[in-house]
Design goal:
Number of helices: 22
Structural class: alpha+beta
Shape: globular
Number of domains: 3
């Protein structure tokens, strides 16, 4: 018969009865063995065919955690599953992915403010809460110039100390084009709204080749052949490895939205960012009201319409901001905001409609440059979206109140953008054509929009889903595609560069690779533990290992912006949180790394496993 398990309360009772110190240590050892186990963590990420760099980063981190005695497992899952798990359900220990960067650093407000910790989406998925940081995030919204820059530097120093997430690097991206078919604007990333609108058919372009699928009767196999067909001559053909737009075109959907380019082609906004400044787009003009620095008077362009022919009016704009703040429109006990745009919508205090073309937008106490971010949200037609402000009948695991608007697939979207959808084939393609009633198509436009005058220059646009970036390059080489939407891997980039008919464009990406921690559950509730994990990361090595050096390693998510801190104080703070090992080699100083976890309050077993209580 086995002896009964000895619990701490029994130990304390025996100690009170007068045990000697030697006996007490024996009992403590027994209790420790009975009530502890090795710490095990799961690292969620996407599979290699979705993003090879992310997968490699997760495996690197798993190996380093195992070296310090932590049982770490990489859990690959689809992008939709990962985003749903992290952003909606908050069901994770750690994750490795990329965060979409924004031009204005106010995105940090929704990313880190404690008011968003319970919410879904990229609104504080970590569950981070620090009242001093909240205060700084609120303050930077009201500031400008050097004063705001100083506040943002304070925020970044606190984040280096707290490590709610660990930024790794911002990579350069490489996309291939076929210049004999299409002339692309210089200095603009290929997969962007400005690039698609400014692209022009090349002069004396050859007849295009389209792919034709046929089935071999005896083998039952499908093969793809290239044939030259004149109707496709004015079709702009883009490859993508991301099938999500063929499954869901809901601009409010979190699991299906990471790259917003397709959505921005379909849905317009009052303003668009050009040269680091938000300028009028669907708005003809705007100005701050005299004597009222918190109210912006907006005038819409003439004769605006939705893709279904309905007029677009100021009432739709007012509805958009009300709907983004509460997709239930007050029918639930508590607001159900749009997770994707809550940060920008939170800048708006209210909208007053003055006529079909005129409205006033009242802002919270924010600087004008910050307020302009709200003008970039997608405009939604009231007659389409208002009926979906009701509870969804779709099961959504582990979610709070959810409206139909947040989960509908919206595969026949009604926007007002320069392109409209003509068809989708699930996980195969999405086709669009120019919206002839768009303001770019029928009127002279001012700078900086003059380069888009006349609207989209091709008869149609097709995004074709391919299994890999290598397959995308092969389609370009055969003449059956014109450009790649997704960035190319180093191997695919080498192939494209070695092909004389192809051109490779390089741009700094608009995302930051990072490691995210769930501060809602142990051990990540302990900032000293998070700092110890962060010091296992050799950024210099990873930029070489993951991107052949074509990346900028960053300690702050603002590391590639004008708001990146400089100077001795910052360098000292960063140095104190640096990699524990030989920088640039990835070689970890295991003893020193384990000491960090011991300093954080953890102990090791004789087998060098990091222990936690059962």
């Amino acid at each position: 018969m086995s002896s009964p398990r000895l619990h701490r309360r029994s130990l304390l009772a025996l100690a009170t009865a007068g045990l000697t110190s030697g006996c007490l240590r024996q009992f403590e050892s027994a209790v420790s063995r009975d009530e502890t186990r090795q710490l095990s963590l799961k690292i969620k990420t996407v599979p290699a065919d979705a993003d090879a760099a992310v997968t490699k980063l997760a495996r690197y981190l798993s190996t380093r955690l195992q070296q310090v005695g932590i049982g770490a497992t990489v859990v690959p899952m689809s992008r939709e599953e990962l985003l749903r798990s992290v952003l909606l359900n908050h069901d994770f220990d750690m994750y490795v992915y990329r965060y979409p960067l924004r031009q204005d650093p106010d995105f940090l407000y929704s990313l880190l403010h404690s008011r968003f910790a319970p919410d879904a989406g990229w609104q504080n998925p970590f569950g981070y809460s620090d009242l001093s940081v909240d205060s700084l995030l609120e303050r930077q919204r009201t500031e400008a110039g050097p004063v705001r820059a100083a506040t943002l530097e304070d925020i970044q120093r606190k984040l280096v100390e707290a490590q709610p997430f660990t930024p790794i690097c911002v990579p350069n991206t490489f996309r291939a084009t076929r210049p004999e078919r299409v002339e692309w604007p210089s200095g603009t990333p290929i997969h962007s709204v400005p690039a698609y609108l400014a692209a022009r058919p090349a002069e004396d372009e050859p007849a295009a080749a389209d792919t034709v699928e046929s089935t071999t009767p005896d083998a039952g196999q499908t093969r793809t052949t290239a044939t030259t067909t004149s109707p496709s001559k004015t079709k702009l053909r883009i490859t993508t490895t991301d099938a999500r737009p063929t499954e869901n075109l809901n601009p409010l959907s979190v699991p299906f939205r990471s790259d917003g380019t397709v959505i921005r082609l379909l849905y317009d906004s009052l303003g668009r960012s050009f040269g680091g400044r938000v300028r009028p787009w669907m708005a003809e003009s705007w100005r701050w009201r005299d004597g009222d620095a918190s109210t912006l008077a907006v005038r819409l362009r003439d004769d605006l319409t939705w893709h279904d022919g309905h007029d677009l009016t100021a009432e739709d704009v007012a509805f958009t901001f009300e709907f983004l703040a509460d997709t239930s429109l007050g029918s639930f006990d508590q607001p159900v905001p749009s997770p994707r745009y809550r940060g920008r919508a939170s800048l708006v205090d209210g909208v007053s409609v003055r006529s079909d073309r005129e409205l006033s937008i009242r802002f919270e106490d924010v600087d004008e440059s910050v307020a302009a971010r709200a003008l970039t949200v997608p405009l939604l037609p009231k007659h389409v979206w208002e009926p979906h402000a009701r509870p969804t009948t779709m099961p959504v695991p582990n979610a709070g109140p959810v409206t139909e608007a947040l989960v509908r697939d919206n595969l026949s979207p009604v926007g007002s953008g320069p392109l409209r959808v003509t068809g989708t084939a699930l996980r195969k393609s999405i086709s669009m054509e120019p919206f002839e009633s768009h303001f770019l198509s029928g009127e002279s436009v001012e700078e900086p929009l003059a380069r888009f005058e006349g609207g989209f220059s091709f008869d149609s646009l097709e995004f074709r889903v391919v299994p890999s970036d290598g397959a995308a390059v092969e389609l370009l080489k055969s003449g059956t595609a014109d450009a790649t939407a997704n960035p190319l891997s180093p191997d695919a980039t080498d192939v494209a560069r070695s092909t004389s008919t192809l051109d490779v464009r390089t741009h700094q990406s608009q995302w930051c690779y990072h490691v995210g921690y769930n501060l809602r559950r142990a051990p990540f509730t302990n900032p000293r533990f998070r700092r110890a994990v962060a010091r296992l990361v050799d950024r210099r090595f990873l930029t070489s290992y993951l991107f052949d050096g074509d990346a900028t390693d960053v300690v702050s998510i603002l590391g590639t912006t004008a708001f990146a801190p400089q100077g001795y104080t910052w360098e000292r703070a960063v140095g104190e949180r640096g990699f524990v090992g030989t920088r640039g080699t990835g070689t970890l100083d295991i003893d020193s790394a384990r000491a960090l976890f011991e300093d954080a309050g953890y102990t090791y077993s004789p087998e060098s496993n990091l222990l936690v209580e059962e």
